[in-house]
Amino acid sequence: MIELSNIKKAFNQGKPNEYWALNGIDLTLEAGKVTAFRGPSGSGKTTLLTLVGCLSRPTSGRVRFRGEDISGLPERFLTEIRRQSFGFIFQQFNLIKGLSALENVILPGFPTGRPRAELVASASQLFAQLKLEHRLHAKVEWLSGGEQQRVAIARALINNPQVIIADEPTANLDTALCREFMAILESFTAAGKTVLLTSHDPLVVESSAVHRVVGIRDGKLTDD
Amino acid sequence: MPNLASPWLEKQRHLIDFTLASLGRRKTKNLGLLVAYALLVFVLASLALFTNALRTEATFVLAGSPEVILQRMVAGRHDLIPPGYLDKIGRIRGVQKKEGRLWGYYYDPVVNANYTFMARPAEEVASGTIMVGATLARARGLAAGNVISFRSYSGKLFAFKVASVLSPDSELLSADLVLVSEADFRAFFEYPAGHYTDIALSVANPLEVRNIAAKLAEALPDSRPILREEVLRTYQSVFDWREGIVLTVLSGAILAFVILAWEKASGLSAEEKREIGILKAIGWETGDVIRMKLWEGLLISLTAFLLGFVGAYIHVFHFGAPIFEPVLKGWAVLYPRFTLVPAVDGLQIATLFFFTVFPYTAAVLVPIWRAAITDPDAVMR
Amino acid sequence: MLRLPRRPSTLAFLLLASLGTACILIFAFSGQSTAAQQQKLLATQALVAKLGLTDLALFTESRYTRHPTQADLHSALQDHPGAFDHFPTGSLLPPPALLTESHAESRLAVAGKTASPD
Predict the structure, then answer these.
(1) Is residue B111 one of the residues assigned to a domain?
(2) Chains meeting A at 3+ CB pairs closer than 8 A?
(3) CB atoms inside a 10 Å sphere around CB A18
(4) Residue A120 to residue A115: CA distance in whole angstroms
(5) Chain B 101-120, CB below 8 Å of chain C: which residues?
(6) What angle, rounded to 10 degrees, do the helices at B286-317 and B270-281 form?
């Protein structure tokens, strides 16, 4: 489903503080599976996720998504693919303060021009699945960490993407919430979604919900 | 609302929903800005509407004033028309009627106001009686039948009976008028016999007016003809300097608002930058972010403009512009009460619209442009 | 059933639409004066024609503001005992006391010295 060939990514290229985050990555990711990227901080695993999720383009190398080369596409098309096919769960949740949980969840649906009633209906459904109906109209800053993450998950799912990308999803959660998250992860697999996540939490990478673990260090893949 | 089901329209509505929800997070600050903005438009629009309506009304009613007024000048000052002058004009072709007019000023120490005394034929105003303007009547508490005495410049007391008060409808022109008979006028001011204040001429053909003025200037080199078209032209521009005063006073406020608006619109907080990053990461295009902000700028400035303009209209035409009264009044003691007939100059309002709505919208857009083209992966770093 | 809060965009549209309508009405009707207003204007115009008036009685404080079209070049500052001259300087520098007194208090003293009521 996603093929990466000889991916390199540099930051501040040509400047004295030039830094190569990724140094030649070749990887094929299967559809419908949960893949975890494991590595120390600064290993390049988050950068890899941004490349796969069309948030940025590689300095060199190719990214193929469903057989199509997306590494050279202009920003507009990347945004379109990102909106349709990828849902993001960020480490800091990145919810917009001051807005209600519902408003946050339907935000990715705005550029699609879907009617509001439809967006609200599917958001309510997601809230029901995530057992969060009672917090629908609460402002996000009033929610607990676990609730905030579930709001972030609902937001990632609103456009019904095929791929869920989660960057250190359990970093701010306690063990109980972490197990809860793994359960949600299994429901994604059941729904046929592909999940890519980064983590160095043994609870995540050793979980049965994760099908494949890819190690990264210094911008290169290590043996599994 | 009917579902128009156009994705484009629905998208714009989403963007408006979001921008309003964002503004709603800092209600006091944004409402304060809207109020300040609307107030500024209100004052500027009131000024524009007021002066325009006054000019329109002056142009209309003064169309009835004499075609030519002939003044005599002595040493650069307005002087009396000596006896025989009327005959000296002789017969100029095209002049229908010529008459010597008698009018002058009187300072009333009781209310510290200036009145305009004007002589009328005896059949109109009987000797011993006067007709007064409504503003003057109000200031001195006069009504028809009352008796009032004025001490003349020579120190003698003259008592007059008020025959009638002029219609308040014409207050804008007759506020301070005191109409007296010619004999009373001459006696009161000890006006030398045979002298007049100036000469009014009626001209039938408007195309002839300039020729006649030239002939008059030739026949009487010490005189100055004042044409009605000059009077009207004066009133087209006379409020400009008063308008200018208000603008001078206002410019401080305008400047303060510009700074406030610029700071608010262009100063992009770290929080807002972060939010733009989030929006881009979850699938908003750069164009969506810019459009969203464009809506913000348009909604605020358009609402402020419309509020200010509609408010100004009500202020000027339903309440008689009470805010400007002290400024326009200057140091006049008698100030007429009047309601103006609504007259709106489309171009003037369009100019105001352009200079209030566009700069703000632009000020909102400039910094957003810079922020919106940053990489969406910034949120993950 | 889910209770939706009213959409902000709907509220904004309603507000702008009502203000816009007011604006359109203003433009549509400002050109047309009512019969009463028309009558009032015509009556004033007739009075102007009858009395030969030339100026608005907005600023009666001095000759050059009361009758700006009739004033000579030098008439500013002469008429009202407390008259200021043109705005910025006049408000900073009041006229001398001698001038202020001339008409009102010592009117009798100067009486007869001028032939014209200037």
Answers:
(1) yes
(2) B, C
(3) 10
(4) 9
(5) 101, 104-107, 109, 112-116, 118, 120
(6) 130
ipTM (interface pTM): 0.92
Residues of chain B contacting residue A112, judged by C-beta atoms under 8 Å apart? 7, 11
pLDDT digit string, tens, across residues B243-293? 666 676 677 777 777 777 777 666 677 888 888 889 988 889 888 999 998
Full domain range(s) for residue B363? 7-61+238-380
**Nearest CA-CA distance, residue B281 and chain C, Å:** 24
Q: Name residues 234-293 of chain B within 8 A of A (Cβ).
A: 271, 274-275, 278-288
Residues of chain C contacting residue B303, judged by C-beta atoms under 8 Å apart: 12, 15-16, 19
- Do residues B351 and B259 share a domain? yes
Please indicate if any CB of chain C lies within 8 Å of the CB of A124. Answer: yes
CA distance C94 to chain B (A): 12
Inspect the interface and report whether the beta carbons of A120 and C4 lie closer than 8 Å: yes
Number of domains present in the structure of chain C? 1
- Measured between beta carbons, the chain C residues lying within 8 angstroms of A121 are 2
Global pTM reads 0.82
C-alpha distances (whole Å) from B264 to each of B30, B121, B322, B371 are 9, 67, 32, 15
Q: Please check whether residue B50 lies inside any domain of the structure.
A: yes
Q: Name all domains of chain A by residue range, CATH numbers in brackets.
A: 2-222 (3.40.50.300)
pLDDT tens digit at each of 118 positions of chain C: 445 557 888 889 999 999 999 999 988 887 677 788 888 899 999 999 999 998 888 877 777 778 878 877 666 555 555 545 544 444 444 444 544 444 444 444 444 333 334 4
How distant is the Cα of C18 from the closest Cα of chain A, in angstroms?
Answer: 24
Q: Which residue of C has its CA nearest to A133?
A: C2
CB contact under 8 A, C5 and A137: yes
∠B314-B318-B320 over CA atoms, to 5°? Answer: 105
Which residue shows structure tokens 């009672």? A134
Closest CA to B229 of A65, A55, C69, A50: C69
Reported as a single tens digit per residue, the pLDDT across A78-91 is 889 999 999 999 98
More confidently predicted of B366 and A15: A15
Residue that is last in its domain, among B236, B264, B297: B236
Rounded to the nearest 5 percent, the helix, strand and coil shares of chain A are 40, 25, 35
